[in-house]
Amino acid sequence: MVEFYKLALSKYAQFSGRSRRSEFWYFVLGNFVIGLLISLLGETISTMLGGLFNLAVFIPGIAVAVRRLHDTGRSGWWYLLVFTIIGIIPLIIWFASDSQPSTNQWGPNPKTGEAADISSHLVD
Question: How many domains does the chain have?
Answer without folding.
Answer: 1
